[in-house]
Amino acid sequence: MSDIRLSDAERQDALDVLEEHVRSGRLDIDEFGTRSAKVTAAKRVSELVPLFDDLPSPRPSALLNGAAAPQVPVMSGGGGLSLFLTRSAVPIAIALAVVVLILSRGRLLIISIALPLVVAMLAGARRRR
Q1: Contact of 72 with 33, CB cutoff 8 Å
Q2: For the whole prediction, is pTM greater than 0.90?
Q3: Long-range CB contacts (within 8 A, 24+) of 82-88
Q4: Which positions ≥6 away from 112 have C-beta within 8 Å?
Q5: pLDDT tens digits for 34-46?
Q6: Cα separations (Å) of 37 from 26, 41, 60, 83?
Q7: With b meaning 16 or more CB within 10 Å and e meaning fewer, what string describes 84-112?
Q8: Which of the 8 DSSP states describes residue 15?
Q9: Which of 30, 36, 84, 99 is deepest in the core (most CB within 10 A)?
Q10: Are 123 and 82 in contact (CB under 8 A)?
Q11: Angstrom distance (rounded) from CA 52 to CA 60
């Protein structure tokens, strides 16, 4: 393992792992406070090693050999229509909700609220794939 500098995401991952050890009862709150302060001040991967030597799995991603921190998924270059629908899903849903509200004279107010939420969730699910 090379002694490279830590990113903010790797420090946050290490803090999340420490929180998991507190929840499982391996660390008390005082020990958590001490270790989390050291994680926050850590600049290099080697500074994390002594903080997790006496703890079992889970381990921070920075300490796993050959493993990188979780990456943000990137959408592949899809067709023009799917890109258009992904970018404009919420405005289209809002426009549809306004039309439904006007046509129903307010009786279907729940649809005007639920429809944009459903479309936004579907668009978000497509982005995660």
Answers
A1: no
A2: no
A3: 82/126, 85/123, 86/123, 86/126, 86/127
A4: 97, 98, 100, 101
A5: 999 999 999 999 9
A6: 17, 6, 16, 44
A7: ebeeebeeebeeebeeebeeeeeeeeeeb
A8: H
A9: 36
A10: no
A11: 9
